[in-house]
# Entry
Amino acid sequence: MKKNRIIFALIIIAMGIAVILTSHKETATLGTESILAFEILGVARKVCWSAVALFGGALLGSYAITILSRRRAKEPIIPFDFKKIDYEAEQSHCFVCGAKLRTRDVLPIISYLVYRGRCKYCGAKIGAETIIYESLGLLLGVAVAVFAVWGISL
# Structure
C-alpha cells in the first residue's frame, strides 16, 4: 500500500510540474538567450502535457478492459460498499488464481509486455484484448497530444 501512495504522489508531482510550466506567463524580452529560454520552456510544457495525455489514454484503455472483464465475470465494477470501504476487496486480481495484483503488475501496456501476456503469479494467459484496449487508449492519448497539445491539424 505504501508503494501505491509513492507512485500516486509521483504522478501528482509530475502533473503539478506540467501545470506550473503551462501557467508560466513570462514574455520573451529582447536578446537571443531569453527568446531561446522561452522556446525551450514552450517545448518542455508541450512534452509534459503530451506525457500526461499518453499516460491518461493508456489508463482509460486499461480501465475500459477492467470494466469489460469484471462484467463478463459477473463481478461488480466497484466491488466495495461505500459505508464500509475494503480496499483489499476492490484491488485488481487474476481471474484464474485470484492473486491480488500490485501496482507494478497493472501498469498499462508495460506490465503486459514485461510478463509476456501472462499472470505473474500463476502463468495463466492474459487475453490479447487487454493489450488491444490499452493500445487503443494510448492512440487516443496520441491524438490528444498531436491535436490539442501540439496544435497540429489535418
Q: What stands out?
A: The chain is about 60% helix and 0% strand.
